[in-house]
């Protein structure tokens, strides 16, 4: 029996509406024993915390504002998040960061929202769940201002270059890998990245319902949700890590679970 921890699922996404119990049960049936629900807005973080509380020691959540949602950031946002991160089952601040790929929020607003959450993580000393897409230089520039006091941090759904991965590692960050690593057409360079990153710095996640791993057999996808990812598919991410690194699936499960437990203190 292997045990996996999915460090990032978007269970409050409308693609999972009314399916929560089934999704959790499917995950448990596939040896995914703990899951961390990603908070992407104040409201979403509240909902995630409420769901997590119903599954003690199995589900946990984060509280934060995604850069896409930075436009909703206001004077009350941080005090709302502060209340949430003080709950024992809310284990990290985030997801937060910068996303210059889609630019769903103005960049100056993204930066303001990100800085406020970095300061919050320092204040409450809880780990950070970070999101960076097409914004590496500015992201590091902003983050550097806080580095000396910064708690542990994971850059989730890493799809950047080897050089970017090296910079994150040099700063003590963990990297979270999703099914994107199995997309050898779009993200061929990630094979080299996964090979390079030490096993004790890797965590795995589905980022469900997004990022469906390419190696999930078609027969495992339900008729009505053929493109929907779910935490039950996390072992496919582990499988890709194992094959890129030339090690056993057991080793990947053991290491990533130990990393997740230590990082989130769960
Ligand atoms: Zn993200």
Outline of the structure:
The chain is α/β, with parallel strands linked by helices and 266 residues long.
Span between N and C termini? 19 Å
Broad CATH class: Alpha Beta
**Going by CATH, what is the homologous superfamily?**
Metal-dependent hydrolases
Integer count of domains: 1
**Mean pLDDT reading:** 97
Keywords: Hydrolase, Metal-binding, Nuclease
EC number: 3.1.-.-
GO molecular function: hydrolase activity
Protein name: TatD family hydrolase
Describe this structure in words.
The protein contains nine helices and eight strands. By secondary structure, the chain is of the alpha/beta class. The chain has a single domain, classed as TIM Barrel (Alpha-Beta Barrel), CATH 3.20.20.140. An eight-stranded parallel β-sheet has the order 1-2-3-4-5-6-7-8. The chain is globular. The chain binds zinc ion (ZN). The site of zinc ion has 4 residues, from loops.
Describe the SSE topology.
Layout (H helix, E strand, L loop, with lengths): L3 E6 L10 H10 L2 E6 L4 H12 L5 E5 L13 H9 L4 E10 L7 H18 L3 E6 L2 H9 L8 E3 L6 H9 L3 E4 L12 H7 L5 E3 L29 H12 L3 H16 L2
Parallel strand pairs: 1-2, 2-3, 3-4, 4-5, 5-6, 6-7, 7-8
Bound molecules: zinc ion.
The site of zinc ion has 4 residues, from loops.
Keywords:
8 strands; 9 helices; 266 residues; TIM Barrel; eight-stranded parallel sheet; binds zinc ion; TatD-like; single chain; nuclease; EC 3.1.-.-; alpha/beta
């Amino acid at each position: 029996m292997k045990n996996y921890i999915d460090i990032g699922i978007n269970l409050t996404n409308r693609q999972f509406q009314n399916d929560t119990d089934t999704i959790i049960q499917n995950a448990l049936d596939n040896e995914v024993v703990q899951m961390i629900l990603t908070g992407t807005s104040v409201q979403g973080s509240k909902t995630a915390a409420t769901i997590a509380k119903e599954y003690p020691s199995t589900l946990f959540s984060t509280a934060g504002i995604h850069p896409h949602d930075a436009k909703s950031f206001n004077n009350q946002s941080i005090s709302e998040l502060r209340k949430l991160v003080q709950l024992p089952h809310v284990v990290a601040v985030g997801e937060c960061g910068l996303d210059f790929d889609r630019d769903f929020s103005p960049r100056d607003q993204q930066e303001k929202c990100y800085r406020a959450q970095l300061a919050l993580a320092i204040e409450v000393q809880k780990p950070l769940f970070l999101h960076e897409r097409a914004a590496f230089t500015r992201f590091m520039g902003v983050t550097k201002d806080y580095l000396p006091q910064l708690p542990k941090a994971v850059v989730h759904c890493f799809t950047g270059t080897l050089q970017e991965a090296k910079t994150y590692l040099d700063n003590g960050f963990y990297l979270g890998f999703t099914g994107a690593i199995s997309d050898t057409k779009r993200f061929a360079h990630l094979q080299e990245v996964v090979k390079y990153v030490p096993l004790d710095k890797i965590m795995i996640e589905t980022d469900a319902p997004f990022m469906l791993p390419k190696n999930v057999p078609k027969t495992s996808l339900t008729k009505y949700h053929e493109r929907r990812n779910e935490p039950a598919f996390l072992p496919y991410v582990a499988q890709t890590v194992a094959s890129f690194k030339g090690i056993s699936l057991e080793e990947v499960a053991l290491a990533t679970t130990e990393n997740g437990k230590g990082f989130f203190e769960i």
